[in-house]
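Example with several molecule types.
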Amino acid sequence: MSAWRRFSSTPGARLGLAILAVFVLAAALADLMPYGPEEQHPGGVTTVLAPPSMAHWLGTDDRGRDVASRLVHGARVALLVGPLAVALYVAVGLLIGAAAALGRRADFVIGRLIEIGLLFPALLLLLAIQGVTSRTSLAEVAFAIAVTQWPYVARLTRAEALRVAAAPHVEAARAVGAGRLRLLGVHILPLAATPAITAAAFGIGYAVLFETALTFLGFGVPPPTASWGELLAQAQASGLRPWLLWPPTFAIAAVVLACNLVGDGVRAALSAPLQAAGA
Amino acid sequence: MTALARRLAVVPLVLLGVTLVTFALVHALPGDAALVQAGTARGASPESLAAMRAEYGLDRSWPAQYAAWLGRSARLDFGDSLVDGRPVRAKIAEALPTSLALALLAAALAFGVAVPLGAALGWLDRKAWARATSAALYGIYALPVAAVALLVLRAGAPWGARTLVGMLPAAGALALAETVKLARYQRGALLDALAADYVTTARAKGLGPAGVAVHALRNALLPTVTLLGSELPALLSAAVVVEQVFGLHGIGMMAFDAVMTRDVPLLLGITTVGALVTLAAVLAADLAYGLVDPRLRGRAA
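Resulting structure tokens for the full complex:
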């Protein structure tokens, strides 16, 4: 059975892809929304905290900005920060985790490094990093998330790399004279990457949740840029109006759920052939 | 207990690493406590800023500051807060009970709900409604903690009380995602256990459904117990958001303020205590693991 068949036979995996496709499309076409995301009182009429209407499908916020426009533009932030953060920390986690297969001493150092990283309450570290970079941008938020998440990928990769390093094909390669770096790069890393790739699929959802929490606390993408965490903060500041609270909640949950469903599919697609081979 | 001894030996190393990272990070922050405080009274002269920095020891290099901090904190003296001059130890001691109560209440809620719920969903997996519930849980898991906290608040939960009961809504909001995660884990673990050979053997020997359930559940508790210990850092992170929404003055909010005011001694004290609490939780989970699974007693976890 092909990897795609295994992926799509997982319940919800295709639904997850479809949901993500809708959000990607919405983010790409965000400029087609009738109002700009930072436009106050569009049309010249004062419309502060107006409930949903024909003119403003999801109402307006406390500065008279169109919530629907801000929601759709917020998808851009989520869909840029999530994948960017994941690409960063999966690459770092893969390299550090796989390096544990270089030898006992390397493994000891990397093992402790991972332990330290895992112990750090992520949000505390994120707060500190966000403080460092005074002028926050999308890339810096992604970087901050990556710094707290690499240990999880490194831990998974380390365990897998140590397992693969003991496999017969590695021993054979060593016997014919392959150097340590060649062993690592050619014979260990490609096989040890499976858990990291699965983690990456789930990771985009986590990254979106992190970005939301950070921005909600005022440390993420700075206002007036529309992002879902900022929309939640607006909802809190404006007396928890339902039309301010529900749209970002629903959007975040939909994207995170979609990522988790796709993650389940990726896991199924990657794990089955190994089991079939009797691993 | 050689495994425990080996784990304890790593504790100082980990604490050293965590504080070193924090120190380097805070030092890289633009501006310092002197500037932040002078900012409230604009027009501070360079001389008074320099005097302030000398008083706090901010004029020395950061490795020198770190070494000094390390020497003092070994005697559990984390110095004084740069903002209000009160001892960091006293400030943490004030905020810690709130955070611990919140985290423990959330953990108890998550564990108390997730284990029976997950076990029931695993046991009744053939029923359509149990499958539907499992799927619905996946949706709840995707909710951001800030939105959950705001929704609880909007539902008109009585909050702000300094009692355990008053903290229940906040703890519930904090526990929701964790509950779903644990329940899904518990369900999977029970399904695995029910498919295991020893359960088949027990069934073949005539053990009734109730006996099988107890038999499988005991072993299915294992992964859930360890997960709870390793989830504490995530719980502490989410607590910052929950404390902010519910206006609780716990460690999370204190850390938030410490970052905003560049209060280095306070931030270092908080990360050190936070790492200690987390280490203790992970060790406790390891010990609990040994209690549930006799095979693991005395072995490296």
